[in-house]
Amino acid sequence: MEGSAVGVSEAKVCKTFQINNRRYLGNKYKLLPFITGVVEKECAGIETVADIFAGTGAVASAFPDKAVITNDLMYSNYICHCAWFGAQAYDQKKIADFVARYNAKTRCGENYMTRNFAGTYFNKRNCAKIGYIREDIERSYKKGELNERERALLITSLLYAMDKIAATCGHYDAYRKGAAYEGALELAVPLARANNRPGNRCFNEDANELVKRIRADLVYIDPPYNSRQYCDAYHLLENVARWEKPEVFGVAKKMDRSGMKSRYCTAGAAEAFEALVGDIRARYILLSYNNMAEKGNSRSNAKISDEDILRILRQKGVVKVFSESYKPFTTGRSDIEENAERLFLCTCYDGA
């Protein structure tokens, strides 16, 4: 768990963290017993699990004994999936050495982060360090000092460290003006499995296109529920993960996100969902969708009705519905009672 230590040398000890040590809208970590319980009871002979709107990767992490396929439209999530689930071997001592060196760095010059974000989500000192670290990761990778998974692990460490001290309420739609900055940036070592299944694969693309090319015993679907685009809420993490150094604009310092928008946050969500389900090749489809159809404000209301969900899934197979009450992580302005997460399990007719 977070806070334990990995020894690097006599003079260097680094903290560690796990996949769940992150704030993220819609994170299913607290619902894992509910989700895995349904799978264990209702789904037989599962060897491959595809989590095609994987977000933090929490649900995929609940199936360490299965071959997992992860996907997310956000590159910042995809790079974390490569860290947590990648099949490539990596050197944990090397990762710990890099982390210790980054944490010991005290003087960093002006860079993309200081020029664009100082005094917003982070103070200038932390911005300078974020920019230095991200640039050094890329430089080290291009020099052959890091393999692809090691690069992903270090970027993941940086993103988690940023999230821990950002002057936000858990997302980056806005920063808390006048709020005290919470300490110095400190990276930790990801406790990622060194022996993941060789069949694990990670993707960064439109789920509707991906399902045309993959097969899995179980496809888990957790699409955005409402009009809040994840690329708006996590644009800064996306910016740092991609490290293309784009121009940013507005008070929130957002980059152009036109190519990152999800159809599942729009009026076309039901149509997109119907096309998705039609193209899935699996024995089971498990959909997470809450009961927020008309409970919140207009931005919080679910984009796909229960009627559409059931109609679409019943065209594919036999459907069962399971429900569990819970309090989700939100932006901090919602206090909606009787919130429930539902699991719609479809046993596919064709058993593809």
TrEMBL record:
<protein>
    <recommendedName>
        <fullName>site-specific DNA-methyltransferase (adenine-specific)</fullName>
        <ecNumber>2.1.1.72</ecNumber>
    </recommendedName>
</protein>
<dbReference type="InterPro" id="IPR012327">
    <property type="entry name" value="MeTrfase_D12"/>
</dbReference>
<dbReference type="GO" id="GO:0009307">
    <property type="term" value="P:DNA restriction-modification system"/>
</dbReference>
<dbReference type="InterPro" id="IPR029063">
    <property type="entry name" value="SAM-dependent_MTases_sf"/>
</dbReference>
<keyword id="KW-0949">S-adenosyl-L-methionine</keyword>
<dbReference type="Pfam" id="PF02086">
    <property type="entry name" value="MethyltransfD12"/>
</dbReference>
<dbReference type="InterPro" id="IPR002052">
    <property type="entry name" value="DNA_methylase_N6_adenine_CS"/>
</dbReference>
<keyword id="KW-0489">Methyltransferase</keyword>
<dbReference type="GO" id="GO:0009007">
    <property type="term" value="F:site-specific DNA-methyltransferase (adenine-specific) activity"/>
</dbReference>
<dbReference type="GO" id="GO:0003676">
    <property type="term" value="F:nucleic acid binding"/>
</dbReference>
<dbReference type="GO" id="GO:0032259">
    <property type="term" value="P:methylation"/>
</dbReference>
<keyword id="KW-0808">Transferase</keyword>
